[in-house]
Amino acid sequence: MLKYRILLLNDARHIWKDPMLMAALLGPIAVIAFARFVFVPLSGWLEGQFAFSLLPYTDFAAVFLLLTIPLLPGTMAGLLMLDERDEHLIGYYAATPLTRGGYLAYRLFMPSLLSALLSAAFILLSDLAVIGPGAMHAFLLLAIEAPCFSLFLAAYAGNKVEGLALSKLSGLLFAGPAVAAFVPEPWQYAGAWIPSYWPAKVYFLGANDEPVLSSALPVAGLLFHLFLLWLLIRAFLKRID
C-alpha cells in the first residue's frame, strides 16, 4: 500500500498546483449542485420568459449532466499520465516494486473510483435522476468510461498540449444521449459505436419503466465498454514500449 500512497500524494501535489486539474476534480460537484439547485428554477424562468419548460426533458438532462462526470476525472488522470510519460516516469515505476502493471492498475482504478463515487452522488442527490436498475447499470458503464478516456489521451496525444486538444473531442460523446433520446429505433442503433449511447439507452429504459435486467442491451453495453477498455490498454502499452 505504501507504493500507492506515494503515487496518491504525488497526484495530490500536482492537482493542487494545476488549476485545470483542480477544476476537473471539482467540476462534478458543480454539476451536482447545478442539477439540484439550478435546473428547476432555470426551467421556471425559461417558461415564464419564453413559454418553454425544461421539465419534460428532465430524463435527458439527467443523463446529459451525468455523462460529464466520468469525463472530468478521466481527463485529469489522462493529463497526469501524459506528464509522467513525458518525464519518463513510467519506465522508472516499472523498475520499482510498483511495476508497470501496478502503475497501470492504479491509473485505471483512481478515475474509475472517482467516477463511481461522483456518479452515485449525482444519482442520489441531484433530484433529477430516476433511481432504479437503469440508473445503476448506467453508473457501472460510466465507471468504465472514465479510465477509457484517460487511456485515450495517454495513448494518442503526443504531449500535454495535444492531450488538452484531444480532450475537446469529449464533446462528441454528448451525441450518445441525443441519439438514444431522439432518434427512433432501429435507426438509433447506428449510434451504438458512441460509448455514451449505452449508459443513456439503459437509463432511458429504466426511466420509462421498461424492462432493463431482462433486456440484452445492458449486457451488450457492458461487453462493448470492456472491449473498448481492452483496446485502449493495448494502445497505451504499445505507446510506452
Number of structural units classed as domains: 1
**Which band does the percent of strand residues land in?**
under 5%
Distance between the termini: 26 Å
The parts where pLDDT drops under 50 for at least 5 residues are none
Give helix and strand order, one letter per element, not per position: HHHHHHHHHH
Class computed from helices, strands and strand pairing: mainly alpha
The proportion of residues forming helix, as a percent range, comes to over 70%
Mean pLDDT: 87
Number of strands: 0
What is the rounded Rg? 19 Å
Shape by Cα distribution? globular
| Tally of contiguous helical segments | 10
Q: What would you call the quaternary organization?
A: single chain
Q: Please outline the major beta sheet.
A: none
Write the layout of secondary structure elements.
Elements: H1 2-17, H2 19-50, H3 58-86, H4 89-94, H5 99-125, H6 133-156, H7 160-167, H8 175-182, H9 197-207, H10 217-240
Helix pairs in contact: 1-2, 2-3, 2-5, 3-5, 3-6, 3-7, 3-9, 5-6, 6-9, 6-10, 8-9, 9-10
Transmembrane segments: 21-40, 60-82, 103-125, 137-157, 164-183, 216-237
Keywords: Membrane, Transmembrane, Transmembrane helix
Protein described:
The longest helix has 32 residues, at 19-50. Helix 5 (99-125) packs across helix 6 (133-156). The protein is globular, with a radius of gyration of 19 Å. The protein is mainly α. It has one domain. It has helices at residues 2-17, 19-50, 58-86, 89-94, 99-125, 133-156, 160-167, 175-182, 197-207, 217-240. It has ten helices and no strands.
